Amino acid sequence: MINLFRGSGRRAFDSLSEAEILALAISSEEEDARIYQSYAATLAPTAPDSAKVFRDMAEVEQAHRNMLISQFRQRFGEDIPLIRREHVRGFYQRRPDWLMTNLSLDTIRAQAELMEAQAFRFYTEAIKHVTDASTRQLLGDLALAEQGHGEIAQMLGNKHAPEDVRQEEEQSRHRQFVLTYVQPGLAGLMDGSVSTLAPIFAAAFATGDTWSTFLIGLSASVGAGISMGFTEAAHDDGKLSGRGSPLKRGLASGIMTTVGGLGHALPYLIPHFWTATIVAAIVVFVELWAIAFIQNRYMETPFLRAVFQVVFGGSLVLAAGILIGQG
């Protein structure tokens, strides 16, 4: 057998024998079936109907694999060469399935369509390098099958995930995103932004020292982030509430709490006191309005109520900090 790793470390497709082309097709169908099964497992908790689509697609790929193995056994016996996509120069690569876990349903479906288009091009090219009539016929049939998989996916989607079901699944994923990331992250951002206002600005006006103010702001922000993160992760494991992983929620809350405090602490790295204070005040203004927007956008809080709660309340805390620092 020709050395599998020559030249740049990969074989040229033109150098593959007919046995190796069949072996490559077998391993490719096996990998695609596993990817579809992985998509189905990922989608099952939040999009069960779409998960059925990918389970059916995996079964189709397994059927193709069995047809190829039968053809290989008939022509070349039982020993299938170990050759995979990564062994062939210029051969299409699959994205690792773990990169698809947090993407939308439409993105995953688009990736599946791309997989089928790539498989069609492979079989079309493979036919040119095969002389055996039965093998050419099989590869041609598989090329047509892959070309029609877009229609099959659409048909399966209509069967298992009609438009109203897809909308419901998207709404479910959106709700889960809000519960797991937006809600704890927003709570952390609000806590970090508002609760650190008074100590940071009190320290600034009491000392007039920008570096000391920055250190106080840094310690307050990091301390609040750690506290909020642990509190969020510990008080609800997510099993009954459906709010998702406590680790993810804790990280979202802790990180956003720290970010909220650092936003108006970092300007005090500027040595000039009034320049740093003006920049910090501008940052506070932007932070508070951003929080109000997020509340309105994701939590469906009426915008005026959000502005009153966050901007007005934050302004009072800011004013308290300044008054205390000047006292």
Share of helix among residues?
over 70%
Note the beta-strand portion.
under 5%
Structural class category: mainly alpha
How many domains? The number is 2
The geometry reads as elongated
Order of helices and strands: HHHHHHHHHHH
* Number of DSSP-assigned strands: 0
Largest sheet: none
What's the overall average pLDDT, rounded?
A: 79
> Ends: how far apart?
87 Å
Number of helices: 11
Pick out the low-confidence regions.
1-7
Radius of gyration: 29 Å
3D structure, described in words:
By secondary structure, the protein is an all-alpha fold. It folds into 2 domains: 13-161, Ferritin (Up-down Bundle); 173-326, no CATH class. Helix content is 74%, strand content 0%. The chain is built from 11 helices and no strands. The protein has helices at residues 18-43, 48-76, 105-127, 133-147, 149-160, 163-195, 197-207, 210-235, 246-263, 273-298, 303-326. α2 (48-76) packs antiparallel against α5 (149-160), α6 (163-195) crosses α8 (210-235) and α6 packs parallel to α11 (303-326).
Provide key terms for this protein:
327 residues; mainly alpha; Ferritin; 2 domains; elongated; disordered N terminus
Question: What is the structure about, briefly put?
Answer:
This protein is an all-alpha fold and about 325 residues long. About 75% of the residues lie in helices and about 0% in strands.
Which helices and strands appear, and what pairs or packs with what?
Elements: H1 18-43, H2 48-76, H3 105-127, H4 133-147, H5 149-160, H6 163-195, H7 197-207, H8 210-235, H9 246-263, H10 273-298, H11 303-326
